[in-house]
């Protein structure tokens, strides 16, 4: 055989070819594919014979009886290390002597179907499941090569080495001028996961490999072809592939993460087809055996779901499955996700979608693993978004996530920022439905409550002083036992908390005669109004003017008719209350009205009327010690001060009770809860626009927190806004009169006057006693209070689940909140300090 090879140059070189195989491959493994091929393509029998270092196959066997010879085509497959030589011969066998006559076959071996079949067979065995797929998808980083060159490249690969790029080059020159490369060699640049080398194919079909893996690269832009220089050689790119070298430069410069880096390059360049995404995924899977295991595993799972690097909004559940799988398993999930969006250059809006999908993973079990990405996106968000409610919702989500990930200091700082940015929702205290359970904390300012509760929990984790937060929560929910019980644990507020506890549990509100002081300081109306009126009304231009216009149209009780059957209240018959009335009028800077003792219809009422003259009527039952309604001077002071406050603020000519009586006389419907819809003149858009804002923010709270009590406790405001069409910007025009809006007159007047009256009584128990005794149904309700207590009395509902005394609860809640507030103490100092 050696002689044959030495003499092969004299033969037709087209009948000799090489197959390149890997270490451990045996030439005999070619028998089956070769025989199988011929069995399907040839009609004659095959003869297979084992020879030294290989085997032969005789095919196309024919017998010529006349000449006495057998003619056949013989293929020899002989292995020399990792090269298998295939030799094609034409053989004639003399039947008489069995002497063989051989000559070179008369065909080009490399073009034969069986040889191409063998090359393809070997490529499949050597296939790294990466390069072949890339060839199928025709990516620009891989030039189309003949099978022989492909076969040679693959037999050069080491264990777990994968082909990434094969590009054409020209004019290869060695830096050592004394060395020359064979002329007329065609060259290719080959990049694998482990090495970089140049592959040269010499005209005599030999291959030349120059390994430049450890060398540095310099790319020099030229017109047309670019020049690439390494430590040992230089070469030029081809005209159309110069940019590709610039793109793969990061891979060339890296030795440990080439598959992953190349995968990122493919992701950015080819992300429109699923096949390309699967290819990138395969690259990341193969790379995941390195130190970047977790990152590349995540990339491998993620990229097939990001066609065109966009989140499919209709199929977020598949992304969530991937995120859940990795977030549950790895603490570095968030950091890896940041690297991915940066590597793949995902847009701001796609990252925003990713964050939204991640929201279920903000729970405590995975919060620490996902917070890094939220923190990363926060920096982008604050630069992009300016709309208040969008910022509010994002911050709320982020603060909750920080809290769950035990980043308590950052969380509470953000919660404080959120709290300061909350819309004014004080108006919702006036708007509970009759089924809203204020005693259990429903209704009211749930926006603030939600934030404060979160802050309180964090403060406990940080062992911070919680007294201020507990105080704020008690002011917002002063009838909720949990709030008042917590407040009672703090010395500064202990006495007031105890007072509220005693009031709610009392069956008989015993109030004692207290020392009365008439030494009040004058109060400036504008300053007092600012402190006692809900802030949502303070900036409502025209509200009180409109209110005055409405009330002015009502008919007050006839002065002459009232005094005709009433006795004067004076210093002789009731000196204590007259002294108190005089002192209060001095403080309020109003004239002392004429005072009368009401009888008959007015025996159970305290009524103040602003007019010419203004007068005050106190029902005889409050003054008679034998009456169930009798009040000691401090409790009676509270009821009197309410009426004087109405006059003081000039927002009524009669008390709210008679406002609605007068409204009824004018043909308006009086709603049981004293809340009705009336034509309203004047600009109060600021109020109702604010309600719409609160409704919007309330829905955000529900969406972000996903806490049942928020949705349930805040639903009253939603019901009321829908019922009365509070949003003036609503597209719903179903109401007959577009000018109709909600008139909260009764409640507003009462709670403002209640607060001022409490300042003068300075006794919450006395004030509550006055409120109860002033009810028109006090005689029949008193036994219920005596038997079951104040709270049980207030908690009574009718057959439809409505609270029977909801108006009283609203007033009591407002008064207790004011009593606990810092504003109460500030105004008291102004009133009592000389």
Question: Which features characterize this protein?
Answer:
19 strands, seven-stranded antiparallel sheet, 834 residues, 36 helices, disordered N terminus, single chain, six-stranded antiparallel sheet, PH-domain like, alpha+beta
Give your account of this protein's structure.
The protein has about 850 residues and is of the alpha+beta class. Among the domains are: about 1-115; about 125-250, Roll (PH-domain like), CATH 2.30.29; about 515-834, no CATH class. It is built from 36 helices and 19 strands. It has a seven-stranded antiparallel β-sheet with strand order 10-9-8-7-13-12-11, with helices on both faces. Strands 1, 2, 3, 4, 5 and 6 form a six-stranded antiparallel β-sheet that branches. The protein is rod-shaped, with a radius of gyration of 47 Å.
Count of runs of 4 or more consecutive helical residues: 36
Structural class: alpha+beta
Radius of gyration: 47 Å
Query: What are the low-pLDDT stretches, counting only 5+ consecutive residues below 50?
Result: 1-10, 651-689, 706-743
- Biggest pleated sheet: 7 strands, antiparallel
> How many β strands by DSSP?
19
Mean pLDDT: 83
Topology:
Layout: H1 2-6, E1 16-20, H2 31-41, E2 47-51, E3 54-64, E4 69-80, E5 83-94, E6 100-104, H3 113-126, H4 131-137, H5 147-156, E7 163-174, E8 186-192, E9 196-201, E10 207-211, E11 218-220, E12 227-229, E13 233-237, H6 242-252, H7 258-269, H8 274-287, H9 293-302, H10 316-329, H11 333-343, H12 348-358, H13 367-384, H14 388-404, H15 408-421, H16 446-461, H17 467-476, H18 481-487, H19 494-505, H20 525-532, H21 535-538, H22 543-552, H23 559-563, E14 567-568, H24 575-588, E15 594-598, E16 606-609, E17 615-619, H25 620-623, H26 633-648, H27 656-665, E18 676-679, H28 685-705, H29 708-713, H30 715-724, E19 740-743, H31 745-761, H32 764-773, H33 778-788, H34 790-794, H35 806-820, H36 822-832
Parallel strand pairs: 15-17
Antiparallel strand pairs: 1-5, 2-3, 3-4, 4-5, 5-6, 7-8, 7-13, 8-9, 9-10, 11-12, 12-13, 14-15, 16-17, 18-19
Helix pairs in contact: 2-3, 3-5, 6-7, 7-8, 8-9, 9-10, 9-11, 11-13, 12-13, 13-14, 14-15, 14-28, 15-16, 16-17, 17-18, 17-35, 18-19, 24-26, 26-31, 26-32, 27-31, 31-35, 32-35
């Amino acid at each position: 055989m050696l002689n044959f090879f030495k003499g092969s140059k004299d033969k037709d070189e087209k009948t000799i070819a090489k197959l390149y195989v890997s270490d451990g491959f045996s030439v005999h493994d070619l028998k089956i594919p070769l025989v199988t091929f011929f069995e399907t393509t040839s009609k004659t029998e095959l003869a297979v014979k084992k020879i030294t270092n290989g085997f032969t196959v005789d095919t196309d066997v024919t017998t010529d009886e006349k000449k006495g010879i057998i003619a056949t085509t013989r293929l020899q497959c002989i292995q020399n290390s990792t090269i298998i030589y295939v030799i094609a011969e034409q053989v004639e066998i003399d039947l008489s002597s069995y002497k063989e006559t051989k000559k070179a076959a008369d065909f080009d071996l490399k073009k034969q179907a069986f040889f191409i079949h063998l090359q393809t067979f070997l490529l499949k065995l050597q296939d790294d499941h990466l390069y072949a797929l890339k060839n199928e998808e025709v990516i620009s980083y891989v030039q189309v090569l003949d099978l022989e060159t492909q076969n040679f490249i693959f037999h050069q690969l080491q264990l777990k080495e994968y082909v990434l790029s094969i590009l054409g080059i020209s004019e290869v020159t060695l830096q050592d001028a004394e060395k020359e490369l064979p002329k007329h060699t065609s060259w290719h640049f080959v990049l694998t996961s482990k090495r970089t080398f140049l592959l040269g194919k010499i005209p005599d079909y030999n291959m030349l490999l120059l390994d430049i893996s450890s060398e540095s690269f310099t790319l020099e832009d030229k017109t047309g072809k670019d020049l690439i220089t390494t430590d040992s050689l230089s070469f030029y790119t081809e005209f159309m592939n110069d940019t590709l070298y610039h793109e793969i430069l990061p891979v060339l410069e890296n030795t440990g993460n080439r598959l992953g880096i190349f995968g990122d390059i493919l992701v950015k360049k080819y992300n429109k087809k699923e096949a390309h995404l699967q290819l990138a995924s395969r690259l990341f899977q193969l790379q995941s055996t390195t130190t970047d295991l977790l990152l590349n595993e995540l990339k491998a799972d993620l990229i097939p779901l990001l066609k065109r690097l966009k989140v499919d909004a209709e199929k977020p559940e598949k992304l969530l499955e991937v995120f859940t799988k990795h977030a549950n398993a790895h603490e570095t999930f968030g950091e890896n996700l940041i690297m991915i969006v940066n590597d793949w250059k995902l847009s701001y809006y796609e990252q925003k979608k990713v964050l939204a999908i991640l929201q279920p993973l903000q729970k405590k079990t995975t919060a620490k693993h996902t917070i890094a990405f939220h923190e990363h996106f926060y920096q982008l968000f604050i630069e992009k978004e300016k709309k208040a409610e969008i910022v509010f919702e994002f911050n709320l989500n982020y603060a909750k996530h920080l809290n769950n990930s035990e980043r308590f200091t950052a969380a509470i700082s953000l919660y404080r920022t959120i709290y300061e940015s909350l819309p004014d929702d004080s108006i919702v205290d006036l708007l509970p439905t009759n089924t809203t359970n204020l005693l259990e904390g429903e209704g009211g300012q749930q926006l603030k409550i939600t934030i404060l509760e979160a802050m309180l929990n964090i403060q406990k984790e940080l062992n911070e002083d919680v007294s201020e937060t507990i105080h704020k929560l008690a002011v917002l929910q002063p009838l909720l036992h949990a709030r008042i019980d917590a407040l009672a644990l703090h010395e500064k507020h202990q006495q007031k908390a105890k007072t509220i506890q005693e009031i709610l549990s009392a069956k008989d509100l015993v109030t004692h005669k207290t020392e009365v002081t008439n030494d009040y300081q004058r109060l400036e109306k504008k300053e007092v109004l600012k402190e006692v009126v809900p802030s949502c009304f303070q900036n409502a231009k025209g509200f009180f003017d409109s209110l005055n216009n409405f009330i002015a149209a009502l008919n007050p009780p006839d002065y002459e008719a009232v005094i005709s059957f009433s006795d004067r209240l004076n210093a002789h018959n009731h000196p204590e209350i007259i002294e108190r009335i005089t002192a209060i009028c001095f403080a309020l800077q109003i004239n002392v009205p004429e005072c009368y003792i009401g009888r008959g219809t007015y025996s159970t009422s305290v009524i103040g009327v602003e007019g010419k003259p203004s007068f005050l009527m106190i029902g005889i039952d409050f003054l008679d010690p034998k009456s169930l309604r009798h009040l000691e001077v401090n409790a009676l002071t509270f009821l009197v001060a309410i009426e004087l406050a109405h006059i003081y603020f000039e927002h009524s000519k009669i008390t709210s009770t008679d406002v609605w009586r007068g409204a009824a006389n004018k043909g308006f419907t009086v709603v049981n809860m004293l809340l009705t819809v009336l034509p309203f003149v004047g600009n109060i858009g600021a109020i109702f626009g604010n309600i719409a804002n609160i409704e919007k923010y309330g829905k955000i709270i529900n969406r972000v927190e996903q806490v049942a009590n928020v949705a349930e406790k805040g639903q009253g405001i939603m019901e009321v806004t829908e019922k009365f069409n509070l949003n003036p910007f609503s597209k719903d025009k179903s109401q007959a009169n577009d000018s109709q809006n909600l008139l909260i007159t009764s409640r507003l007047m009462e709670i403002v006057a209640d607060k001022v009256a409490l300042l003068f009584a300075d006794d919450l128990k006395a004030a509550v006693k006055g409120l109860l005794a002033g009810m028109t149904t006090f005689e029949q309700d008193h036994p219920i209070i005596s038997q079951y207590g104040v709270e049980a009395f207030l908690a009574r509902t009718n057959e439809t689940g409505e609270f029977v005394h909801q108006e009283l609860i609203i007033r009591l809640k407002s008064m207790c909140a004011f009593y606990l507030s810092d504003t109460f103490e500030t105004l008291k100092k102004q009133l009592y300090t000389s």
